[in-house]
Amino acid sequence: MHHYQTIIIGGGLAGLIAAHQLSKNGKEVLLIEKKSYPFHRVCGEYISNEVKNFLISEDLYPDEIGPTQITKFLLTSIKGNEAKMDLDLGGFGISRHALDFFLYQKAEAVGVKFLLHTQVEEVKFDARETKFLIKLDKGNSFSADHVLGAFGKRSKVDKTLNRSFMHQRSPFIGVKYHIITAFDTNTVALHNFEGGYCGINQVENGIFNLCYLGSKEQLRHYGNIPEMEKEVLHKNPHLKNLFQNSEFIFEKPEVINEINFSPKKPVENHILMIGDAAGLITPLCGNGMAIAIHTGKLAAEAILQNKDRSAIEKQYTSHWNHFFKTRLWVGRKVQWLFGSKAVSEFSVSLIKNSTFAATQIMKKTHGDVF
What we know:
Elements: E1 2-9, H1 13-24, E2 29-32, E3 46-48, H2 52-57, E4 68-76, E5 82-93, H3 96-109, E6 113-115, E7 120-126, E8 131-136, E9 141-149, H4 156-160, E10 172-180, E11 187-193, E12 196-202, E13 208-215, H5 216-222, H6 225-231, H7 237-244, E14 247-248, E15 254-257, E16 267-268, E17 271-273, H8 288-305, H9 309-334, H10 341-353, H11 355-365
Parallel strand pairs: 1-2, 1-9, 2-6, 4-11, 9-17
Antiparallel strand pairs: 3-5, 4-5, 7-8, 8-9, 10-13, 10-14, 10-15, 11-12, 12-13, 16-17
Helix pairs in contact: 1-3, 1-8, 5-6, 8-9, 10-11
């Protein structure tokens, strides 16, 4: 059984950032990912500029890919009424297909070892040996001093750890397309529909990401995604126009089920949870990718700056709570302002009549530059 200093389960943004930072600073790292790069993920594909300075300083900003600079926000109600505002901090648009592959190459260049097309079946902490045992789907096993959980919103590992949110059913589904359409390249938009909301912004190469959080019950009622979109999303004229007058690049959409926004613990069974595994901010806040990057950085720092396991866990938990706990809580509350006729009209009215209030809400769900 091969032993590693650190094993990271999951190769999304959080896992890749943590792997890069640890390996760059002399740690032996194995990252296990069930897919193979590059691949698409259901994601808003807009990143708050709070992470930009960090990425540039670590030579991890994907300038050569050509991210789109986002400076404006558009919100529409189900009826089609709209409100616009400038983004205080702004961000950039880039596809996960391109960004994750870029970071994978960067991590590999600094010595991170990858095990792709591999599913982790079980993780156990051996208190007597003070190390982790990781069992894989192919029957082999590894051990590690530290394990970082970067396995996303919902995984087999969550189930084996018996995490509390796994016992709760979620009413949400996520659906994502890449499209070519006529839309402002510097704007990220959020379009309400009954039971959910849909975001759009440009990523690289003139492509737009169209991604929405919808209702599992509505999908069950209408029988399939196209019929649900026609009967529900098209009630918003902005969405109807997008769906009817755009070129859809994917043969079929990327879809995920059981998106759960319940609170999670940043450390469970001595595993440092990073990215969505530590907590999922509602998509309307538009900064889940930035949070993932930041958590990967914080987890790596906790390991690099401490020798004792309890000190590592204490530092990471403290920093995670400081930077993210309130943001995720505000995100869950703000989500009440979306997804129905009355509240979507109120949200549009709020931006139109009180830009200050809208800006303050946005600041509460976004972090400072680091």
